[in-house]
Design brief:
It comes from Candidatus Thiodiazotropha taylori. This is SRPBCC family protein. The protein has 333 residues and is of the alpha+beta class. It folds into 2 domains: 154 residues, 2-Layer Sandwich (Alpha-D-Glucose-1,6-Bisphosphate, Chain A, domain 4); 150 residues, Alpha-Beta Barrel (Multidrug-efflux Transporter 1 Regulator Bmrr, Chain A), CATH 3.20.80.10. It contains 5 helices and 15 strands. The strands form 2 sheets. An 8-stranded antiparallel β-sheet has the order 8-13-15-14-10-11-9-12. Strands 1-7-6-5-4-3-2 form a 7-stranded antiparallel β-sheet. A hairpin with a 2-residue loop joins strand 6 and strand 7. The chain is elongated, with a radius of gyration of 24 Å. The two termini are 43 Å apart.
């Protein structure tokens, strides 16, 4: 019995010893130039009542319960949130330093308790443009220290999304990512005319610019029938190397044939649909938010089944890039 207790104690102690060796601290800094005066940008950010218009978290749960202090735009002012998906917490203004800096304290209650520092810096570029810096520093609770190294990556994507959305609130013609989470969708089996690609992101962008027009011309010249929107189906993605194995495709009738391009069949199934309205430059953020939303909703993706990126309109036909519509389909269990 004594031996068994010793073994159990060792098994319990090993992960605790490992956690004790980890640095639980993290720091994040993201920046963006916005066509707004320092004062206008400062006033926008210090007014907590405006945050729901550009929060990268509240878009995951718009019905989140919000509460505000009597003076949410003054030192000591605060706002709190309480949602099933985004958790609960409070953000408080601790100090304003002129119109150059805002210091805040963020207190998380759920999904775990922690306190971190947040601060904003406002750097005038000229009278009409300001570079804003959004910073956060904190530490993970002891049992979550293993997450500390990943926190900057997670927070950076959220901060980037929020800064672009904030810019959209202040610049009438700014490019803005509008991301909506549509829910589960059933996709049918389909046949498509395809070009296979394997390589890095910048090469993929060039391949898309050249490949989709080639597919479209072939369909027109050979009087084939396109049966849906062009899409990319991602078989393997290595985000560390930004390396992609995928097919560029346009759906065609099942009986179609081609001597120049490969005809492939793709099985349908259950997917979760996320829609981006905005430039293709925001697709990386949209994919991140799509997977973050699944995690928040406790929906498990099927990692061995390929995801799809569907281009629902032609960028050449829209007046502004904010009108480009792209749907992301992630296979789910």
């Amino acid at each position: 019995m004594t031996t068994l207790l010793i073994v159990i104690a060792i098994i319990v102690a090993i992960p605790l010893i490992y956690l004790a060796t980890l640095d639980g601290n993290y720091k994040v800094r993201r920046s963006l130039a916005i066509a707004a005066s320092q004062k206008n940008l400062f006033d926008k950010i210090r007014d907590f009542s405006s945050w729901s218009d550009w929060s990268p978290w509240l878009m995951h749960e718009p019905e989140t319960a919000l509460a505000f202090s009597d003076t949410p735009d003054q030192e000591g002012g605060w706002y709190s949130w309480d949602g099933k998906t985004v958790g609960a917490g409070r953000l408080t203004h601790e100090k304003f330093i002129g119109e150059e800096r805002i210091e805040q304290r963020i207190e998380f209650q759920r999904p775990f308790k922690s306190v971190s520092r947040v601060w904003w810096e406002f750097e005038p570029i000229d009278e009409e443009t300001t570079r804003v810096h959004w910073n956060m520093a904190g530490s993970m609770p002891f049992l979550f220290r293993f997450m500390a190294k990943k926190m900057p990556d997670y927070i950076s994507k959220d901060y980037d999304t929020g800064l672009y959305m904030l810019r959209g609130e202040l610049e009438a013609e700014a490019e803005v990512p509008r991301i909506s989470f549509e829910g589960p969708a059933e996709l049918p089996d389909l046949t498509a005319l395809t070009i296979h690609f394997e390589g890095h992101l910048e090469t993929l962008k060039k391949a898309m610019m050249e490949g989709f027009p080639k597919l479209g011309r072939y369909i027109d010249e050979n009087q084939l029938t396109a049966t849906g929107y062009p899409f990319t189906i991602y078989h393997k993605v290595d985000l560390k190397r930004m390396h992609f194995n995928c097919d560029l495709a346009i759906p065609v009738a099942a009986e179609s044939g081609s001597s120049d391009f490969e005809i492939k069949s793709y099985p349908g199934g259950r997917y979760y649909k996320t829609t981006l309205m905005g430039s293709y430059e925001f697709l990386e953020l949209a994919w991140y938010q799509a997977y973050a939303h699944l995690q928040m909703q406790k929906i498990k993706p099927r990692h061995k089944q390929p995801s799809r990126e569907v281009y629902e309109n032609d960028p050449a036909t829209v007046i502004h890039s904010n009108e480009i519509v792209t749907s992301i389909y992630i296979p789910i269990k």
